[in-house]
Description:
34% of the residues lie in helices and 20% in strands. It is built from 4 helices and 5 strands, in the order αβββααββα. It has helices at residues 8-18, 54-60, 80-100, 132-142; strands spanning 22-29, 34-39, 46-50, 111-114, 119-124. The longest helix has 21 residues, at 80-100.
Amino acid sequence: MRLHPMHPAAWVLDQLRDAGWHIDDLLVFTRASTLVLAHRDTAAPVVLKAGFGSNHVLAELDENTRPAAYGFYWYAEMTEAERALTRADFRHEIAVARTATGAAHIVPLLEDGSTDRFDWYTMPHCAGGSFRPLLTEAGSTAAGL
């Protein structure tokens, strides 16, 4: 995977690598979050969702570099209060996912954490592209079948 260094996702991937993750693939990058297929050492790959979207990533770039970055056309400078609220919303998403883990028909949260600049959590990676077998098995186990 080769991203232009000015693409905001490149910054997110660098931060994850610095936190000890090995990046297998960039799955999705939006203004709200980034989904990455990643693993640690010899562990199986997981899907890692990093919160703090590209508006926050672009805010990390200096004023002279920011206009050249990919995605600047929709970038709107957020205040510190707006960034804090967005981060609180993502932390709430993590808490809801943690609480729902183990419930039937819910993709489980495996691990979560924070860096100084964003929060993240992981969920299983389904190589076949469907969670149906995992959720069916989890539902059967929860129902005592």
